[in-house]
Write a sequence for this structure.
């Protein structure tokens, strides 16, 4: 299949965004939600996740390799587009632009977030409720986390919509419209979960 | 005779290499004009709004009834056919510009060769020639024929490529129009016999996977072709084709 490399890469990009990166995002949001039940509860959950067997392999295979492949190829996709929402202000064209903008914000946010927690942990810091409470004691970081997490959640939800189109699951206009409602429902639900979690550390 | 006038602001370009510039024209109003008849008026006496003699504006046209696609240009910001752009329905001054997605030949005339090359790339035809008479092909159900007729309305006008954010100088995307043609020819009972060739052509670089789902094409298509439905249907077909190519299949 000479010449179909970009087809395969693009499909892989679409798949990895949902499995495993999207699933990891859901797991991460669920585990973090323990923070709303108090510091001890969060520490317990973080401890469990942090001490899973094969942790480094799991992190590499489920998180870092697919995440950075998705992110770097996503940057390439973003910068080969020529956005034109000013001339064509259709709903889907705005979503197309937002998908790319939130993707770039998410990459910046996630890279910083990994640096501040996982890399810091590798240098001896302990990942627990107190660590997040310290980070979120600055109003600037609260804003940064809110923007970052909401971007990630939007990018995932709207990415689900285009995942369904890219693999040919939603073909007809009606199915794509219903899929828009469902994925935006997912966005709202995940936004509530993540915002409540962030405020649980303040 | 009324003293009403129509104003045109036209983006002009003398050669493919020179810089574009704007020129204003003012014409006497007549009822029921379209952009083509206004351009013909300018050609009849090429004088700009300042009263200076200038060169006549170049544009392409052919059928004058929105079936050939030749007179596509950007009119008040939107790509469309000049023949069906009625002056009475347009905001003034009427701005005309070439579809910059394509190489500009001169003024409003662009070179849409890339679209015809793309049709060749995806084999948008039905091979019926043999060394002997192959006889009649399979029948097409009437309901399907009516459905396929909608897809066959594509006139290669270039409007969907102009509206697509993924068709640009940084990308090799062939654009929505040739993709939808694959769906048309793969739906035909005889064309179906070569559907794998077309699907494999779509899976090459610059093909189907370069679509980013902005869906501007379906909003812009002057013939109302369900381009994004075609793209999603082909996404499904190429999903199966990719698995088949990789793993092999029990079906021929």
């Amino acid at each position: 299949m000479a010449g179909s490399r970009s087809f395969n890469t693009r499909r892989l990009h679409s798949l990895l965004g949902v499995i495993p990166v999207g699933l990891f995002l859901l797991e991460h949001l669920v585990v973090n939600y323990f923070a709303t039940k108090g510091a001890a509860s969060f520490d317990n959950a973080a401890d469990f996740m942090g001490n899973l067997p094969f942790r480094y392999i799991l992190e590499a295979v489920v998180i870092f390799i697919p995440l950075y492949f998705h992110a770097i190829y996503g940057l390439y996709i973003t910068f080969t587009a020529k956005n034109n929402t000013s001339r064509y202000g259709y709903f889907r064209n705005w979503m197309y632009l937002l998908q790319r903008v939130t993707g770039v914000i998410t990459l910046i946010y996630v890279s910083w977030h990994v640096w501040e927690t996982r890399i810091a942990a590798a240098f001896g810091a302990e990942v627990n409720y107190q660590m997040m409470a310290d980070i979120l004691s600055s109003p600037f970081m609260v804003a940064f986390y809110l923007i970052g997490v909401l971007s990630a959640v939007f990018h995932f939800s709207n990415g689900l919509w285009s995942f369904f189109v890219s693999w040919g699951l939603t073909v007809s206009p009606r199915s794509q419209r219903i899929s828009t409602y469902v994925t935006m429902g997912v966005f709202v639900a995940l936004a509530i979960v993540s915002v409540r979690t962030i405020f649980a550390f303040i | 005779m009324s003293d009403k006038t129509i104003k045109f602001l036209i983006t002009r370009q003398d050669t493919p290499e020179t810089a574009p510039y704007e020129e204003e024209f003012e014409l006497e109003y007549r009822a029921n004009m379209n952009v083509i008849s206004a351009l013909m008026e300018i050609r009849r006496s090429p004088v700009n709004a300042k009263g200076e003699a200038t060169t006549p504006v170049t544009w392409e046209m052919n059928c004058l009834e929105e079936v050939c696609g030749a007179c596509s240009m950007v009119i008040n910001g939107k790509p469309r056919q000049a023949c069906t752009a009625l002056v009475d329905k347009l905001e003034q001054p009427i701005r005309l510009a070439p579809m910059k997605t394509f190489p500009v030949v001169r003024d409003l005339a662009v070179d849409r060769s890339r679209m015809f090359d793309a049709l060749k790339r995806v084999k948008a035809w039905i091979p019926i020639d043999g060394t002997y008479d192959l006889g009649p092909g399979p029948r097409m159900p009437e309901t399907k024929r009516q459905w396929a007729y909608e897809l066959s309305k594509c006139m290669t006008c270039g409007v969907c490529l102009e509206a697509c954010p993924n068709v640009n100088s940084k990308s090799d995307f062939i654009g929505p129009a040739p993709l939808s043609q694959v769906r048309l020819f793969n739906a035909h009972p005889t064309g179906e016999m070569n559907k794998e060739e077309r699907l494999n052509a779509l899976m090459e670089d610059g093909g189907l996977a370069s679509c980013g789902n902005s869906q501007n094409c379906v909003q812009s298509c002057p013939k109302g072709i369900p381009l994004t439905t075609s793209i999603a249907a082909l996404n499904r077909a190429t999903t199966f084709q990719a698995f088949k190519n990789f793993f092999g299949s029990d079906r021929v």
About this structure: Residues 16 and 166 of chain B are 23 Å apart (CA to CA). Chain B touches chain A through 38 residues (CB under 8 Å).
